[in-house]
Amino acid sequence: MESVNQLQRKLAEYTASLYNEKILDEQFVQLQQLQDESNPDFVVEVVSLFFEDSERLLNELAKALNQPNVDFKKLDAHVHQLKGSSSSIGAQRVQRACIAFRNYCDERNVEGCLKCLQQVKNEYNLVKNKFETLFKLEKQFVDAGGSFPVV
Amino acid sequence: MAHNKAAYRTTTTTTPPPPSLSIECSSPPITPKGSLPERVLSKMLGFADFSKRNQSPSRGSSGSGTPRTFHRDVEVDEELPFDSSICQSNYRGVFVVRLAIMVMLAILIGMLTLLTWHFTRVYTSKSLNTLAFGLRHELLQRPILRMWNILNTTVEITTAQVKLSEYVIRKYSNPVDQAQQVEQLYESMKEVTWAMFASRKALNSLTINYKNGFVQAFHRDHRSNNTFYIYSDLANYSISGTYDVNLLSSRQGWNDQTIHNNISAIWYREPLDPSTGEKNGKQSIIPPDELINIAGISQVPDGAASWHVAVSKYTDSPLLSAALPVWDPSNKSIVAVVGVTTALYSVGQLMKEIVEFHSGHIYLTSQEGWLLSTSTNTPLLMNTTKGPKLMMATDSEDPVIRSGAECLQKEYGNRLPPSQEVHIENAKLGNQLYYIDSFFLHLKRLPMVGVIIIPRKYIMGKVDERAIKTLVILISASICILIIGCVCIFVLTDGVSKEMKLRAELISQLNARRKAEASSNYKSQFLANMSHELRTPMAAVIGLLDILISDGYLTNEQYATITQIRKCSTALLRLLNNILDLSKVESGKLVLEETEFDLARELEGLVDMFSVQCINHNVETVLDLSDDMPKLVKGDSARVVQIFANLISNSLKFTTSGYIILRGWCESARGGNFSLNQKDSWTAPKVKFKRQESQGKKFSKKDNKMILWFEVEDSGCGIDPSKWESVFESFEQADPSTTRLHGGTGLGLCIVRTLVNKMGGEINVVKKDGPGTLIQLYLQLNCPAEVTGQHCQMRFEEHKLRVLLALNGRMGRVIMSQWLERNGVHTCGASDWNELTQILQGISVSKSHLQDAPCECLASEDLSIQDPQASLLFVIVVDIGILDLSTSIWKEQLNFLDEYCGRAKFAWILYHDTSSTIKMELRRRGHLLMVNRPLYKGKMIQILETIIKEKNLELQSFDNATVEGDLHECLEIDPNHSDITCSDDSDKSDNGNDRCASAFRSEKKREENFVKASLSHYGLNNYFIDFNDENASDMNDLGQMRNGEHQLTSTSAKEVTNGCSDKVAGQKSLAGLCILLAEDTPVLQRVATIMLEKLGAKVVVVGDGLQAVDALKPVSNSNECRNESLQEDDNSITSQAEGSYSLPYDLILMDCQMPKMDGYEATKAIRRAEMETGTHIPIVALTAHAMSSDEAKCLQVGMDAYLTKPIDSKLMVSTILSLTKRKA
């Protein structure tokens, strides 16, 4: 029981830090709210969907940017998608990077786009790590016998 | 820029504009400041200065600087990107061109000068030279001719003498007595010779030297003017007596030596009378050859004539002597030699004469250079020990002649080529220039050279002088022209350069302006982005707070704190919204909606809200809308409400006590002179009413723009007239010091003005009598055609109503009573309890006696005729504030009022904070008609209508003897009211679809208009709070309670929907709905699906627009597909789906940006397809763009609503519900 409490505190602190560092926003809260008995792994499911999708999109972006004639329209569409999905799970830093990215797309600035792509990747990796840690903690917590309060 | 300007100014001050000098060429321009060079220099410096400092000079032009081209260029400049380097180079180019023109001018003028000089000078000098040469030649020719003459004469005389001598000798050659013969010969010879000598005065001497050595000679001394006869001693000669004529024939016989050395011979000289030849003196013996040269045989060695130049000591000029032999008749031997000597004196004389006339020097020399004759008086001979001797020209005492001769000698040496004439011009002799000409006179045996030296000055002097003068004049004239030309160029190009400066300035200003505009654009952009970004976390904060508040496990302090936080957050959000609004307007992205809405209701809601705040301030909020206001107008309700919310809140801020009145009336846009009328109407409110009535009739035919006039009046501190304009600027407050006192950013009025302008109106602060502010504005709004200005107010007249207004606020009471009076309702007013009791007592008397009360005189006649019960309705509207609530007296007061309960209907005006005990008490006593403050028209109408209905019911119940109908039900049926409830809990009623739609549409905009839009709905709630209290559902109750609690912070829509959806979520509010989700992002797909499914809806997901269209297109197919897809999820749906073939889905959630076919295209396609079937499926856009332009685009393609990502589940629920409700 002691460890459960510890884990719970740890988890809470970690979650709070995620919000404090502005890695996640209230959208993630909503996601968590959506998780219930009927969809016990909803958050993990959505987040892994997000990972898959994002990785695909990042690859697409890198490919598009490496071409001699950058198709900015396509680029913009991809970034837009990434922005939409990241905002949906509340990964706001990725979302913000995407906004900057789109501005460069509008300006047709290849260098800026490359820079932004790097930034987006960084943010993505960051949020991915954070999520993984979070899920690990949650798993530990659940394994230890804790249960989430119904939001 | 300022720097440039300064530079330009300094340039202009250093070089004052040149005076108008270009025409006066003769005089160089003299300006008061400094000389011309200085000016030019300073000008140049100014140029350099300018071009140096001005980093962005204008683009050069062709230099033809007319203002027109200038403007045109500027316009072009505005469009073209500006290139400063080109400008600079062009500017320099002009500078160089200016210099080049000057240099060319200088060259041209110099050439002209030179040519003029050349032609005037060279040709004259050439012709003059020719003339001068002729002159010199002529001059020299004359002495030479004279010389020639002299020679000729000498020769002639000699020849004549010879001939005569021959004749005489022949005559006496016969051998007679020798002595006699000789005597005769000599005597006749003497006679002949004398005749010859006398005839020629110029002769110096005439000698005859006989073979035998006898000499006869005549000599003329020109100096002493004596004439001598010289002869040798005859006797002596005869003694020797060996005179052999034959011997004479042989040349050997002639021996000079013998003759000349005939020492023995004695020479005699006899002076003669020059004219007669008579002997006038005694003969004297002279040494031989002492006097004159006697020509001897040696001088005619070949028997021909000979010449030579001799000198004699008696003359100072050289002598020309000629000798000819006298032949004997046989012509075989020379018998005598005749010698003639002529002085060259006359030649010199002639030369002198010539020279006197012409100046200069002339001299003659022999070929060897011996000086024969000069035009000067210098001696020609030099005395040597051997007597006088000829001198060389180079030794002459006259310096000119000497130097001339030296010059000639230098030129040619001694090898003077014969017959060559020498002309030296400009020989420098001494200090002067001379012409030297020599002519060669080729005489046999005596070649001579004539030299004339004429000073150049004599011939060319005048010409040279003139030439120099001309040159000086020409040069000075050309310099003048050059200077004037340069000045002209400066003057002419000065305009160009000035223009260029101006243009440079203008362009830099344009640049600055462009930059400023860009920066302000960036600012707006930044603000928009920032506020957008800030709003998201703010919304999150508020949402989380709502969750917390609804948690229910909070302690009281926590609850209070959270409520406080929520207030602050809402305020912050409002500020952000203001900024976003402003930046939206500035960036031109604000798009006004065009929907129908009930203006009066919106404003009533607004006033309701603010009245809550007003009460705290002891301020009365009054809404006074005229009856002719159209009920429905088209426009952006949220924005209109925002305008008034801002204005009222602004007034509220500065009004501590008194009133705030929102007036509104209407004016048709067709009224041409309304501005004038309007002025009148402001100043004289009474006129206004009259006109309103007259205009009310005109409103029958309309589908036109209405001009709606509003004014917001308060009794606050007022605005200084000088600030009337500036209060509408952003971040401007009339008195900056009040910021601390009242708070606020000063954005409110600015937003108001931009919104008003956007709606085609104007806003102004107007002068007001008394303290406070009066702000007037008008809006142009469209009215739907079917709406007429007429309301139901006319009905009141037939009910014989009497209203007693017992209200605290004076303004509200006056306005209300005025309005009621206009509508045929008699009113009395009471401002406090005492007044009320007095009036009530008065009425009670009148009632009990069925007599006319003082206030009721008009209605009395009617009353008497009709049934009093049916005809007279006495309504008492009591403000709860009239009661003394601080103590328990109010219960007694209520008791007192209860006495009139039977005779009059009571309506209570409650405060928002009126305690529930009072409400309970009132309800207990049967006072069911309660409304919240403030009292305005709409509420009044409802009160009256309720009372009328109640009356009718009572009558019915009286007639039919039934139990009194349930009052509450009756009230609920009231259509107006059901509207309100509908907007509140939308799943309840269906008959207000349109309103709901509009309500929700505006609700969607809560992001921009968080507070105000929602207020209109929930404010309406307050109409009959207490009825709702009992009848409405729990949810409504909850919302109401919340409303009451948070009215101070302007309850938001979100909050209430929160409450709703919280409840609804539990109930699966979307149960039974089938939703098609078109979304390409898997994450969003998943999230939205779960969200919807949690709410009970069935979701079908498609990946792009094309699929979405396909899913809808073939109804049967799609149904099957859908069945299949749904079966995977839930089998129970199929039965439901079969029920509605025509509409397989209840709603579509459409992402706007999707691959293959985006949301817009898909929607268009769907709508096209629907044209055939005549159905309409609601489509809700999902987009990450939050600007209202995107919304407009969504709505334009046919979508029904619009949701932004990330999806807010509550908003989504309410939107979906509103749309599906309509359909159902």
In short:
Chain A is mainly α and 151 residues long. Helix content of chain A is 80%, strand content 0%.
Written description of the protein model:
- The complex is a heterodimer of chains A (151) and B (1224).
- The mean pLDDT of chain A is 81.
- In chain A, 37% of the residues are buried.
- Helices cover 80% and strands 0% of the residues of chain A.
- Chain A is mainly α and 151 residues long.
- With 1224 residues, chain B is an alpha/beta fold.
List keywords for this structure.
A: 151 residues; mainly alpha; 0% strand; B: 1224 residues; alpha/beta; eight-stranded antiparallel β-sheet
Largest sheet of chain B, in brief, is:
8 strands, antiparallel
Numbering strands along the chain, what is their spatial order in the largest sheet of chain B? 5-4-3-2-1-8-7-6
Shape of chain B: rod-shaped
Beta percentage of chain A is under 5%
Integer-rounded radius of gyration of chain A = 18 Å
How much helical structure, as a percent, in the residues of chain A?
over 70%
Order of helices and strands of chain A: HHHHHH
Q: Tell me the span between the first and last alpha carbons of chain A.
A: 22 Å
Low-confidence stretches of chain A: none
What helical percentage do the residues of chain B reach?
A: 40-55%
> Which structural category fits the helices and strands of chain B?
alpha/beta
* Structure summary, number of beta strands of chain B: 32
Q: Bin the strand percentage of chain B.
A: 15-25%
- Calculate the mean pLDDT score of chain A and round it: 81
Q: What is Rg of chain B?
A: 73 Å
Topology summary:
The complex is a heterodimer of chains A (151) and B (1224).
Chain A (H helix, E strand, L loop, with lengths): L1 H19 L5 H9 L7 H25 L5 H18 L2 H16 L2 H34 L8
Helix pairs in contact in A: 1-6, 3-4, 3-6, 4-5, 5-6
Chain B lengths: L1 H13 L21 H18 L13 H13 L4 H88 L6 H22 L3 E8 L4 E7 L4 E7 L1 H7 L4 H5 L6 H5 L6 E6 L11 E3 L19 E5 L8 E9 L6 E10 L1 H14 L2 E6 L4 E4 L6 E4 L2 E4 L8 H14 L9 E8 L2 E10 L6 E8 H96 L4 H31 L8 E4 H19 L1 E7 L6 E4 L1 H18 L3 E11 L5 H10 L1 H14 L6 E10 L23 H5 L5 H11 L3 E5 L7 E9 L12 H4 L2 E6 L3 H13 L3 E5 L2 H16 L11 H6 L2 H4 L1 E7 L9 H10 L6 E6 L5 H9 L5 E3 L4 H24 L6 H7 L1 H10 L8 H12 L1 H15 L4 H7 L2 H13 L6 H15 L6 E5 L3 H13 L3 E5 L2 H8 L2 H15 L3 H7 L7 E5 L7 H15 L5 E5 L4 H10 L3 E4 L4 H15 L1
Parallel strand pairs in B: 17-19, 23-24, 23-25, 25-26, 26-27, 28-29, 28-30, 30-31, 31-32
Antiparallel strand pairs in B: 1-2, 1-8, 2-3, 3-4, 4-5, 6-7, 7-8, 9-10, 9-15, 11-12, 13-14, 14-15, 16-18, 19-20, 20-22, 21-22
